[in-house]
Automatic annotation (TrEMBL):
Bacitracin is thought to be involved in the inhibition of peptidoglycan synthesis by sequestering undecaprenyl diphosphate, thereby reducing the pool of lipid carrier available. One of its GO terms (biological process) is cell wall organization. GO terms for molecular function: undecaprenyl-diphosphatase activity. This is Undecaprenyl-diphosphatase. It comes from Halolactibacillus alkaliphilus. It is an enzyme of class 3 (hydrolase). Its EC number is 3.6.1.27. Signal peptide: none annotated. Its main location: membrane. InterPro entries: UppP (IPR003824). It catalyses: di-trans,octa-cis-undecaprenyl diphosphate + H2O = di-trans,octa-cis-undecaprenyl phosphate + phosphate + H(+). It comes from the Bacteria. The gene is uppP1. It is found in: Cell membrane. GO terms for cellular component: plasma membrane.
Length: 272
């Protein structure tokens, strides 16, 4: 493979991962499908660690105001000697629920990630899980919950956290699983979306910190430019994809993602 071809290869997969990460169609599943479709293989997890970190930066950028508000009010609720306002308590509890929801995927990922990857490997298995994702999205396509940020409960956090752990299976979208669970629990679309993507931050950051050494261990000077191209591409693609998905959620057009997952999942299962 020539150097130009290598760069284009990483640019393409950086775009695929970045664009599909925030929307409910499974970025990991699409990487499996495209690798199988083009008979290509990533050499290690280094690429996924890198582009997932790029997606994390895009999410941090989009939700920066929410993060600053939560951090400010949460810290004020804990450490300020002044009177605690309802907003401080609400944001502090939102942080608590995010922490609780992070635990299931963290524990299951550490204990069973390799087993899950081996058990559900291959494009046909991804096809099945994409079909499951499509059915789940179809079920919630018309739901419009009433539960806002301040009305979340411990039960909501645990159930959404467990749904995120299911997304360790390739083809099960992380954003899709958490948003489906959140909306079935009666959350407003805006609340479901915010909780889902703020929940993505600790999980993604934890994965990066645990596996960042792999980047240096597998580091090859020949891959510096291709990896950089993939990183920048994934960052930009995630940013615009998430903005687009936020607009889609506002209009309640999840049916399109449902149809897409059903079509691609059927193709992967029958053809690949």
């Amino acid at each position: 493979m020539s150097f130009i071809t290598l760069v284009l290869f990483y640019l393409f997969f950086g775009f695929v991962q970045g664009f599909t990460e925030p929307i409910p169609i499974s970025s990991s599943g699409h990487l499996v499908i495209f690798q199988d479709l083009f008979n290509l293989k990533m050499e290690s997890l280094t690429f996924e660690v890198l582009v997932n970190f790029a997606s994390l930066l895009a999410v941090l950028l989009i939700y920066r105001n929410d993060i600053i508000r939560l951090a400010t009010n949460g810290l004020s609720f804990v450490f300020s000697k002044a009177k605690k306002t309802p907003a401080m308590k609400q944001d502090f509890m939102f942080i608590v629920y995010l922490i609780i929801a992070t635990i299931p995927a963290g524990i299951i990922g550490i204990l069973f990630e390799d087993l899950i990857a081996e058990t559900f490997a291959g494009a046909k298995m991804v096809g099945i899980t994409l079909i499951i994702t499509g059915i789940a999205l179809f079920i919630i396509r018309n739901l419009k919950g009433q539960k806002s940020d301040r009305e979340l409960s411990l039960k909501d956090a645990i159930i959404v956290g467990l749904s995120q752990s299911v997304a360790l299976i390739p083809g099960i979208s992380r954003s899709g699983a958490t948003i489906v669970a959140a909306m079935l629990l009666g959350m407003k679309q805006e609340t479901a979306l915010r909780f889902s993507f703020l929940l993505y931050i600790p999980v993604s950051l934890g994965t990066f910190l645990l596996k960042v050494s792999d980047i240096f261990d597998a580091g090859s000077s020949a891959l510096v430019i291709p990896y950089t191209v993939a990183f920048i591409t994934a960052l930009i693609a995630t940013y615009f994809s998430l903005r687009w998905f936020m607009n889609i959620m506002e209009r309640g057009n999840l049916i399109y993602f449902s149809i897409y997952c059903l079509v691609v999942g059927t193709f992967a299962f029958l053809i690949l």
